[in-house]
Structures are given as C-alpha cells and as structure tokens.
C-alpha cells in the first residue's frame, strides 16, 4: 500500500458502505454479549460467594440461575465474536494486509484470554455438584480476570485506530513496526477503562432491571432484592466513575482528533471560549435548533475557561466525519450516562442518609426497568460516536476507510442475510431466556432438556421442587 | 530454524488442535442428525450434550487463535486468502454461528418442538462448517489463492481438490466424534448406546477410508505441488495416518474405544500435519512462501511469546478441563 494511495481522494468503492454497515451491525450486536462476558462473571462470583461462604441459599440459587443464563449468552457471544474475527479479514483486507502485523498482537493475546475464559466457563457450568463447592467457586475468578485482559486487548486495537503508534511509513511502506508500542498506544488505557465500566453499567442495569420488573409485579422476596442489589451495586460504582473516566479519555481529543471533537461539540467555527452546544442539527453549514451554554464547551473539552474547541472549518472538507450522527450519538451517550449516574447517586444517598428505600417506589422500579435498555443505547451511541467520528479514516490520519475495504459486489446481500440471521438469534435467545425465567418461577430448578431422560441433567442442590 | 517458521508452526499446531478437538465437536452433529426421532435419539442427544457441552467453546477458540496468528504473523497472505475465499468462509461462518447458538438454545429450550428446531440447526450446521472450511483449505493447498487476493471467487473452492477436501473434512470429523462419543458412552456405563455408537463409528470409519483412498488420484491430478509433497516429504506422516485409521477401526472392533479414540486422533492429526509438511515452504501453495509472507520481525518475536504463553497457560488448562470431563466423578449420572 503506497502512501500516495493512502492519501489520495479516491472515490468510495462500492463495497465501502455495506461493509461499514455490516461491521457496525455485527459489532453493535456483539458488544452487548461481550459486555456480559466481561461483567457477568464478577456478579455471578459475588452471588456464588455469598451462597457458599455465607451459606446463603438465596444467593446460591441466584448464582446457579445466572450461570445458566450465562451459558446461553456466552455461547452466542463466542460465535458472534468469531464473526468479527472473520470480518476483520473479509471486509477490511486493506487494513489487515497492511497493518495486520502492527495491530495484531493484542488480538493474539486476546485469543489467549478467550481460551482461559472458555475453559473455565466449561468447568464452571458443568462443575455444579461435581466439584468441592469452594474450588468450584474459584473457577469464576479466572473467567473474570480473563475478561479484563481480553477487554484491554480488543479495546487497545480500537484505540490504536484512533491514535496509531508503533510504526512509521517510509516511501509508502510500513516499517519500524513495534507491536508493543502499538498495543500500549496513548489512549489504550483510558479507552479500556471507559468500555470496561460501560460493560458493568450495561450488564448491571440490565440484570437489575429484570428483578425490578419482578418487584413491580409484586415478587418482593429476598431472591428479588438480592438479584437486584448485586448487579445494581456494580452498575452504581461504574456509573459514578464513568463520567470521570470519560472526561479523562476525552482530554486532549482536540489535539489528537480535532475533527472528531469538533463533530462531538458541533463546533462549526473556532470560538473562544466555546459554548456547550446541546442538540442542534448542521444543515448546509449552519447549526439550527441548538441550545448553547456559554463557556461550558471550553471547560469540559479543554479544561479551560478560554481555550477553544477547534472548529470544523479548520478541517479540510474531505477529512470531516459525518457531523450530525457523531454529535447526536455523542450527546445521547453523555445524556444517558449522566442520567444513570444521577439516579444511582439519588438512590444510595436516600438509602444511606435518609433511610429511605426507593425500591418501595413504583416509579423508581420503572426507571430501573428501562435503565438496562438505556445503558445499551448509551454503549451503542458511544461506539457510533467514536467510530463515525473517526471517519473518513480507519487508521486516523494514515489510512482511509475506503482504502481498507475490499472490492466485492453483493455485500448488501451479506448484510441482509446477517440481519435475518441475527434477528433469528435475538428472537431465539429472548424466547429461551424468557422460558427459563418462566420455568424458574413455576418452581422448576434444574431445567432438564425437553428431550432425554429427565434425571440425567439434575444435580443435588437445595431448592429443587420437582423433577 | 527461522522465526517465521516457528510462528507458522505455532499457528499450525493450533490448526491441528482445531481439526482434532473442534472437529470431534462438529462431527457429533452427524450422530445427532441421524439419531432418529425424539424418543429414540434421546439418550444419544443427551450424551452429546454432556460430551461436548463443557469443551466446545474452548475447542472453538483454536479457530480464533489460528486466525489471529495468521493475520498478525502473515498479514498479506491472510488478506489474500480472505479476499479470494470470502464465499466458503462466510458459509463456514454461518455454520459456526448456527451450530453454537443452536447447541446452547436446544439444551435450555422449553418445549420439544423448539428443541427439535434448534437441534436440527445445531446438527446440520455442524456439518456445514467443516465442509466449507475444508474447501477453503483445499483452495490454498491446490494453489488457487493468488498472492494479490484476486483469485476467482467461485472456481477457487468449487474444484476437485476443494470439494474432496470438504467431504473428507466432514467424514474425518464424524469419525473422530464417533470414537469420542463411543468412549464417553462406554465410560458413563451406557452399554446400549455405546454399542450403537460403535457400530456407526465403524461404518463412518470405513466410508472415510474409502473416501480418502478414492480422492488420492483426483487430488494428485488437480494439485500437483501438494501431491508431490504428500508422496515425498510427507509420506511417513500419511503412512502414520493410514495406520492410525486402521488402528482406530481395529480398536473399535475389539471394543476398546478409549484406545480407538487415541488412534483416530493420531490419524487425523498426522494427515493435517502431513498436509502442512507437503506444502512447505509455501503458505499459499505456488504463490507465497512462509518467508515471503512473514510480517514485521518485532511482531513475529512477540508472537513467539504468545505461542509460549499458550503452551504454558492454555495447554495445561485444557488438559485440566479434559481430565475433569473424563474423570469418573464427571461421568456419573
């Protein structure tokens, strides 16, 4: 790949848009399941730990049910993650052919952590009643740790696309490759922290929401309280830390990726000090319908009362991202994140200082029920903001996304097929998980498969009511 | 030995592991598919759940390992293969997705009719995935993936070597699974099931042998570079594979399925290693050598570390997992 090519303003190949939509769709789907893979084991561990160490039967039942849920979610997460591995090469041969040996190392290490996760998942899921309880409990720990390492590795590659490091381009050739410098690129750490917390928010609020719905329907037993509190506590810590981490990640964005910051802030021109522009649409170069709060833009984005957000007019037209999508996605993420952080602060503040429990209030349970979907939207919006905001580059400042795409006809068919298959997978997962919850409510415990001898899959645990 | 050769070998070890263990998981789909109606197939399907349930995700990671080692160590050859072979790889991917989801959904489905649907998805796609992965391997082995990645999107995998390789891959998976399941059923004390599986594994083994022997001449005509290697450098490995296959059949006949399983693993592993040895030094046969395809030296050195970590961390853990699943305590009802 020659630099002239890299820098040329080639017309977008026909395969570019469907490839981008394909990647966005499959990644957007997988990130939900990946979040469960990262954050769920820690919550299962807490429940299981209470069950075993504190001899809490309610907690043990929760851990057993969550383990079964994770069996379903992790299985489809494993295969939808494999889809992404293939797509890296199938959709982006220009990226992988040119930079595979620059960005690949963290992926290879991620593969190892995926091994560790999958091995201990197998042991954990099938270990109920087959191992000494405390050793069985310990099997969750490597899963949780591997999830952390894996998250760092994958996010580090995306961070590298934003802040490329670990190579030079000389006479059109990639040279002086240092995969470690690429892996530990400038924003890898903060971007990892941001997504790691996001995973805990997504999973914590989602699971807590399930039990909030149960409480709304009158199931106010210890099972539902604990099932709510464990994930909600994780989500609370993550939600409070997230604005801080997000702010630290955003620091310096104006220097690293001025076009992205300008799009985030909908800054058409460089203003000193810059306002915080809420909402609004850019139409024909003019912003309409925005609410400007003076000075706040400079304060948040640049940590300064005067330093301006560089305007889009400082960026050549061909290097600008799609502004409206980026701006709205960014502010959706910020808005939801702020709302969720405020909500958990209110909950815990009232609980600790006023001795008032908002779980008694239907409106709060309603809010908790939608907090999971809100967190999902925030994660999706965050990914849209950072990915669309990086356009037209796949490797910021080095390789355009159009250079990375392959030359395929018929990629729209692939996207259509993928949408059908993934819709089927989503429906299947929802149906199976709902049927599991229904059978648990009916007092079934082990959920034997509907085929096969009913005694086979059972194990001896308290709480089993019928075969 | 050069760094890139060691990395290529580390990648290839992953491929062998995937073929053997991932292959056995896929192959169980064949017995699931042909197990009969819900009542008759109940015992076998439950056995398959128990047998591959704890291990299939770990075994599946070998595929991810091979992909990341390939694109990190040999990026241009990876991009070329992905571009040319997009169709069979997408079809294999569809199989992989439906297999995993179908397997997980079936176990927890509420009704028999849902379990039937997911079971058919699981079993059918268990055969689709290895077939198309086999055709992709055949395309590379027969020199149909050009270095620039602009190979024909259809004839690259719709040709004698690819199609035979796909069929052989499916047959080998089914044979492996037959020996694994027979051994598992025997250990669990399910005598009737073990006898039924043993009969079918023997049949599959015989068909596999005939298929492999019948493919030799067409593949030799279609893929001369590969054929030269198979009859030359790789001949001892091919002989080992044939002996392993015969041994597996003999052990099965003599009702020693555990030994038969080992023998089948040797047969499949040595034929895969034989393929690698036969096409050495090519990464993409007749197009790109391992040395030419090698990525940046610093990255290859880092991959040596990854391979070493895999050897120190992953292999012992896999052994632990396999030992647990094969232990008396886990086999009991």
Features:
heterodimer; A: about 475 residues; mainly alpha; two-stranded antiparallel ribbon; 16 helices; 6 strands; about 70% helix; globular; disordered C terminus; B: about 325 residues; two-stranded antiparallel sheet; 14 helices; about 80% helix; about 0% strand
Provide a compact summary of the structure.
Chain A has 467 residues and is mainly alpha-helical. In chain A, 68% of the residues lie in helices and 6% in strands.
Textual characterization of the structure:
The complex is a heterodimer of chains A (467) and B (333). With 467 residues, chain A is mostly helical. Chain A is 68% helix and 6% strand. Chain A has 16 helices and 6 strands. In chain A, the strands form 3 sheets. Chain A has a two-stranded antiparallel ribbon with strand order 1-2. In chain A, strands 3-4 form a two-stranded antiparallel ribbon. Chain A has a two-stranded antiparallel sheet with strand order 5-6. By secondary structure, chain B is mainly alpha-helical. Chain B is built from 14 helices and 2 strands; from the N terminus they run H-H-H-H-H-H-H-H-H-H-H-E-E-H-H-H. Chain B has helices spanning 3-33, 38-52, 56-73, 75-84, 86-108, 112-141, 160-187, 191-222, 224-231, 235-253, 257-279, 290-293, 297-325, 328-331, and strands spanning 282-284, 288-289. Chain B has a two-stranded antiparallel ribbon. In chain B, a hairpin with a 3-residue loop joins strand 1 (282-284) and strand 2 (288-289). The termini of chain B are far apart. Classes of the chains: A mainly alpha (467), B mainly alpha (333).
Topology:
The complex is a heterodimer of chains A (467) and B (333).
Chain A: H1 3-7, H2 16-53, H3 57-91, H4 93-126, H5 133-138, H6 140-162, E1 168-170, E2 173-175, H7 179-183, H8 188-216, H9 222-250, H10 253-256, H11 258-265, E3 276-283, E4 286-293, H12 296-302, H13 323-353, H14 362-390, E5 393-395, E6 399-400, H15 401-404, H16 411-441
Antiparallel strand pairs in A: 1-2, 3-4, 5-6
Helix pairs in contact in A: 2-3, 2-6, 2-8, 2-14, 2-16, 3-4, 3-9, 3-16, 4-6, 6-8, 8-9, 8-14, 9-13, 11-13, 11-14, 13-14
Chain B: H1 3-33, H2 38-52, H3 56-73, H4 75-84, H5 86-108, H6 112-141, H7 160-187, H8 191-222, H9 224-231, H10 235-253, H11 257-279, E1 282-284, E2 288-289, H12 290-293, H13 297-325, H14 328-331
Antiparallel strand pairs in B: 1-2
Helix pairs in contact in B: 1-2, 1-3, 1-6, 1-7, 1-11, 1-13, 3-4, 3-13, 5-6, 6-7, 7-8, 7-11, 8-9, 8-10, 9-11, 10-11
């Amino acid at each position: 790949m020659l630099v002239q090519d890299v820098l040329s303003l080639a017309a977008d190949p026909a395969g570019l848009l469907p490839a981008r939509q394909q990647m966005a769709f499959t990644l957007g789907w997988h990130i939900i399941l990946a979040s469960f893979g990262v954050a769920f084991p820690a919550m299962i561990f807490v429940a299981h730990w209470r069950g075993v160490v504190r001899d809490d039967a309610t907690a043990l039942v929760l851990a057993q049910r969550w383990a079964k849920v994770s069996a379903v979610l992790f299985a489809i997460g494993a295969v939808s993650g494999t889809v992404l591995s293939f797509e890296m090469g199938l959709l982006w041969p220009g990226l992988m052919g040119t930079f595979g040996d620059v960005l690949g190392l963290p992926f290879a290490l991620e593969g190892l952590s995926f091994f560790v996760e999958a091995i201990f998942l197998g042991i954990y899921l099938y270990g109920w009643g087959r191992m000494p309880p405390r050793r069985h409990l310990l099997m969750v720990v490597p899963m949780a740790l591997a999830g952390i390492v894996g998250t760092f590795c994958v996010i580090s590659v995306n961070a590298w696309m934003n802040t490329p490091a670990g190579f030079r381009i000389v006479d059109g050739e990639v040279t002086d490759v240092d995969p470690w410098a690429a892996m530990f690129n400038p924003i890898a750490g903060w971007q990892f922290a941001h997504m790691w917390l996001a995973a805990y928010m997504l999973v914590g609020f989602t699971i807590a929401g399930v039990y909030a719905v149960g409480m709304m329907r009158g199931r106010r037993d210890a099972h539902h309280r604990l099932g709510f509190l464990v994930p909600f506590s994780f989500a609370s810590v993550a939600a409070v830390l997230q604005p801080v981490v997000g702010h630290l990640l955003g620091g310096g964005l104006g220097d690293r990726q001025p076009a992205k910051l300008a799009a985030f802030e909908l800054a058409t021109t460089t203003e000193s000090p810059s306002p915080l522009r809420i909402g609004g649409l850019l139409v024909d170069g003019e912003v309409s319908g925005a609410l400007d709060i003076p000075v706040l833009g400079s304060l948040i984005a640049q940590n300064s009362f005067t330093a301006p957000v560089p305007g889009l007019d400082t960026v050549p037209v061909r290097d600008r991202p799609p502004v409206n999508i980026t701006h709205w996605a960014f502010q959706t993420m910020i808005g939801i994140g702020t709302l969720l952080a405020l909500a958990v602060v209110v909950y815990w503040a009232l609980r600790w200082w006023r001795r008032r429990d908002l779980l008694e209030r239907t409106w709060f349970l309603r809010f908790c029920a939608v907090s999971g979907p809100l967190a999902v939207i925030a994660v999706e919006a965050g990914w849209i903001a950072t990915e669309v905001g990086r356009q037209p580059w796949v490797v910021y400042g080095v390789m355009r996304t159009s250079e990375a795409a392959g030359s395929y006809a018929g990629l729209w068919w692939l996207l259509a097929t993928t949408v059908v298959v993934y819709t089927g997978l989503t429906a299947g997962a929802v149906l199976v998980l709902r049927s599991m919850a229904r059978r648990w409510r009916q007092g079934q415990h082990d959920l034997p498969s509907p085929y096969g001898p009913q005694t086979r899959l059972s194990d001896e645990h308290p709480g089993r009511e019928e075969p | 030995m050069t760094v890139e050769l060691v990395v290529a070998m580390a990648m290839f070890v992953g491929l062998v592991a995937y073929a053997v263990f991932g292959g056995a998981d896929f192959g169980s789909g064949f017995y699931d598919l042909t197990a009969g109606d819900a009542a008759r197939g109940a015992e076998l399907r439950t056995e398959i759940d128990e047998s591959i349930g704890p291990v299939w995700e770990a075994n599946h990671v070998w595929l991810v390992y091979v992909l990341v080692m390939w694109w990190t160590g040999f990026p241009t050859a990876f991009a070329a293969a992905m571009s040319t072979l997009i169709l069979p790889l997408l079809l294999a991917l569809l199989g992989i997705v439906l297999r995993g989801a179908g397997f997980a959904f079936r176990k927890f489905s509420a009704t028999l009719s849902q379990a039937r649907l997911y079971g058919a998805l699981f079993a059918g796609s268990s055969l689709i995935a290895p077939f198309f992965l086999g055709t992709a391997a055949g395309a590379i082995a027969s020199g149909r993936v050009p270095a620039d990645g602009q190979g024909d999107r259809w004839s690259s995998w719709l040709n004698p070597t690819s199609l035979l390789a796909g069929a052989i891959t499916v047959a080998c998976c089914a044979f492996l699974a037959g020996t694994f399941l027979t051994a598992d059923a025997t250990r669990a004390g399910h005598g009737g099931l073990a006898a039924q599986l043993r009969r079918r594994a023997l049949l599959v083994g015989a068909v596999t042998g005939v298929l492999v022997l019948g493919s030799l001449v067409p593949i030799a005509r279609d893929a001369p570079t590969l054929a030269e290697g198979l009859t030359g450098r790789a001949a001892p490995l091919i002989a080992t594979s044939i002996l392993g296959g015969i041994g597996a059949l003999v052990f099965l006949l003599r009702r020693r399925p555990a030994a038969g399983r080992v023998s089948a693993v040797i047969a499949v592993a040595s034929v895969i290693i034989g393929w690698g040895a036969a096409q050495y030094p090519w990464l993409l046969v007749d197009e790109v050598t391992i040395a030419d395809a090698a990525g940046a030296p610093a990255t290859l050195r880092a991959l040596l570390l990854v391979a070493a970590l895999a050897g120190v961390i992953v292999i012992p853990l896999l052994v632990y997992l396999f030992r647990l699943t094969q232990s008396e305590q886990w086999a009991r009802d």
